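To the wet lab folks,

You asked to see what we're planning to order before we commit. Fair enough. Below is the target structure as tokens, and below that is the sequence we designed to fit it. If anything looks off to you, flag it before the synthesis order goes out.
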């Protein structure tokens, strides 16, 4: 099966997602809730691309390729949707994301930097430092779900849970009793996948906050 990504022909197998095809072509599409070690989630709507014949941009991570599909990673509408999504995410944070985080890199790629258009309520600072190795800074959580799925799908520890809705959405460890009293096995998979450093190693916290 053959698809076209930004004018490049790419041969793919049945069941290949548009995101996989883009990466096979050497192209790039920003992602926020996606981690290749996990099943595609399709929640963030940052990996939007244009597809010829579609009524609008489509999420690359959950859209399957079809023979002859023409994909445009530079589609203006898709980029505008992704940028608006990232800007809304940033508007809820009490501070800009760390320069080395995935979120910061995506914001730079989409041109979402400096003063935001939608100032408003931001998350209150809430740190959970009860774990001997991991820090949970809930104010930086963007509810991408990657940490929960890493804990469930990759490690099988089921220590994290998604809680709340809308602006109040966040994650909790050990039925909100903290990592120490949860089924956490200290594997660090959640910190490794977190795109904002909301979960990070305590030993790195001082370096991040400089």
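Sequence we intend to order:
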């Amino acid at each position: 099966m053959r698809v076209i990504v930004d004018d490049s022909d790419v041969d793919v197998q049945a069941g290949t997602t548009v995101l996989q095809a883009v990466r096979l072509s050497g192209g790039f599409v920003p992602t926020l809730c996606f981690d290749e070690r996990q099943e595609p989630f399709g929640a963030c709507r940052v990996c939007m691309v244009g597809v010829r014949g579609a009524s609008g941009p489509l999420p690359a991570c959950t859209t399957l390729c079809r023979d002859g599909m023409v994909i445009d990673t530079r589609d203006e509408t898709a980029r505008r949707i992704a940028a608006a999504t990232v800007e809304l995410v940033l508007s809820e944070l009490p501070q800009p994301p760390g320069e080395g985080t995935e979120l910061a890199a995506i914001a730079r790629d989409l041109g979402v930097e400096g003063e935001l258009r939608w100032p408003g309520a931001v998350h209150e600072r809430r740190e959970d430092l009860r774990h001997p190795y991991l820090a949970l800074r809930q104010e930086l959580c963007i509810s991408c779900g990657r940490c929960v799925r890493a804990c469930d799908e990759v490690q099988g520890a089921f220590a994290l849970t998604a809680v709340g809705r809308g602006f109040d959405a966040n994650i909790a460890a050990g039925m909100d009793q903290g990592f120490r009293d949860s089924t956490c096995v200290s594997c660090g998979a959640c910190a490794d996948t977190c795109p904002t450093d909301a979960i990070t190693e305590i030993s790195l916290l001082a370096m991040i906050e400089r």
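Structural context that might help your review: The longest strand covers residues 2-5. Residues 127-208 form a domain with the Alpha-Beta Plaits fold (CATH 3.30.70.20).

Thanks,
Computational group
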